[in-house]
Specification:
Number of strands: 7
CATH architecture of the domain at 33-102: Beta Barrel
CATH topology of the domain at 33-102: OB fold (Dihydrolipoamide Acetyltransferase, E2P)
Strand content: 25-35%
Low-confidence stretches: 1-8
Helix content: under 10%
Structural class: mainly beta
Length: 118
């Protein structure tokens, strides 16, 4: 299955599905809230490359709207992904950033039913 462009990295977290309920289809979606993504200006193992489309200030925080180059298969039905950032963080349109997940703050879902995997 094709994914993001080569060298972009990947959000890698070891997940022991043996302790989870695996859906009958075997297809799992990963859900990550914008506040659980961290942006970095440098690549590192386990980080996913993204391009800043724009930043939307919202008062106490801002949202960076990002595009994952070659990531159409990663983003179900979406063209972009959002990450919450501090209001003082400045990113330029077109700037490359690298995403990582804060700790293990993500959820797993059955791709076919949309139900959370317990």
């Amino acid at each position: 299955m094709p994914g993001p462009e080569e060298g972009s990295g990947a959000l890698v977290r070891p997940v022991n599905l043996a302790t989870q309920v695996t859906p009958p289809s075997g297809k799992v979606l990963v859900g990550i809230r914008p506040e659980d993504l961290t942006l970095y200006r440098q690549p590192a193992p386990g980080r996913l490359r993204a391009i800043v489309e724009f930043v939307q200030p919202m008062g106490a925080l801002s949202y960076a709207v990002l595009r994952i180059p070659g990531g159409e298969l990663l983003l179900q039905g979406r063209a972009d992904i959002m990450a919450a950032i501090g209001p003082e963080d400045v990113y330029d349109r077109g700037e490359a950033v690298w995403l990582d997940i804060r700790g293990n703050r993500f959820s797993l879902f059955d791709q076919e039913s949309g139900r959370a995997i317990a």
